[in-house]
Amino acid sequence: MHMNTPPRSRIRLTRRGRLALIVTGAVVAGTAVAVPLLTLDSDAEKKPAALVVPEGWRAGQVYDAVDKALALPAGTTKKSLGKAGLKLPTDAKGNPEGYLFPATYPIKEKATPEQLLRFMVDTADKKFNGAPIAAGAQRNALNVYQAVTVASIVQAEAASKADMGKVARVVFNRLKRGMPLQMDSTINYALNRSTLTTTEADTRIDSPYNSYQRMGLPPTPIANPGEDAMRAVINPPPGDWLYFVTVKRGDTRFTADYAEHQRNVAEFNRLQRRSPAAAG
Questions:
Q1: Are 68 and 24 contacting, i.e. CB atoms less than 8 angstroms apart?
Q2: Domains in the chain, number
Q3: Is the pLDDT of residue 39 over 70?
Q4: Cα dihedral 178, 179, 180, 183 sign
Q5: Which residues in 33-66 are b (16+ Cβ under 10 Å) and which e?
Q6: Which DSSP state fits 47?
Q7: What is the pLDDT, as a whole number, of residue 24?
Q8: What is the predicted pLDDT for the residue at 2?
Q9: What pTM did the predictor assign?
């Protein structure tokens, strides 16, 4: 049983992702013509004025983007975590995954990785520590850190903003019934990839993020969720759904009936065989 959804990176690159790639220094189609002209400018070596962190980026992607934005050797930002003094929940055990809040961050002269990471975490704290989030988490027997973890799964799994609440409801329904979450996004996180399909072998990997084999939530968030995903978690619509699959773009099917889900998965697989792009 797979809960496959289109990889978030594909969706994001048609929106904020293109801007993020440009800001962080990557060359994408459409900027290639401008690059030779820019190199003639004496200001070409200056750091960008802002860093865009899209919704759903993993911490590793954020670290790489900060390194590029500040023109630092690869790995510098990750190494700076220990001295950044980030104000994280105790449950996070120093890991900022989930708390590098998606936003546009200004980059000032002499900015350091520690300053940028602190800015992101402080922004997350302001967004997540208000009374509505705490109350919404409590309604679903979660603390705020666990609510952020659910929101990260919703961010990674939902094919659209409209589907986020239903995905959150599936997570809560499964937790309540003592069912494993069986979310492909958690396996993708364990394997540090983004893919549309999960194999039988993938579901057997030994990882605390393997939600096919481990019960409950993964030990940390699996991405950095935005406000829409958090809102979906604290106020999901009522429903009995236990399964979902995005059969093709714009067609995510939620059901409480396993046989119906299997038929939906079979249709997804048929479309994949015919044309991988059609289902994504």
A1: yes
A2: 1
A3: no
A4: negative
A5: eeeeeeeeeeeeeebbeebbbbbbbbbebbbbbb
A6: P
A7: 42
A8: 55
A9: 0.81
CA separation for the pair 124, 145 (Å, rounded): 11
- DSSP per residue over 5-20, as a string? ---HHHHHHTTHHHHH
CA-nearest of 83, 80, 88 to 125 is 88
Sequence-ordered list of residues with C-beta below 8 angstroms from that of 24, at least 6 positions apart, any chain: 48, 51, 52, 64, 65, 68, 69
Nearest to 20 by CA among 104, 88, 92: 104
Flag whether pLDDT at 280 surpasses 70: no
Cβ-count burial of 177 within 10 angstroms (0-12 exposed, 13-18 middle, 19+ buried)? exposed
| Angle CA 34–35–36, to nearest 5 | 100
* CA–CA separation, 280 and 278 (whole Å): 6
Q: At how many degrees (to 10) do helices 164-177 and 144-157 cross?
A: 120
* The amino acid at 238: P
The 3-state DSSP class for residue 51 equals: strand
Q: Which amino acid is at 34?
A: A
pLDDT band per the 50, 70, 90 thresholds, residue 20 = very low
Interatomic CA distance for residues 127 and 99, integer angstroms: 10
pLDDT in tens, 78-93: 999 999 999 999 999 9
pLDDT digits (tens, 9 = 90+) for 101-110: 999 999 999 9
- Residue 274 structural domain: 1-280
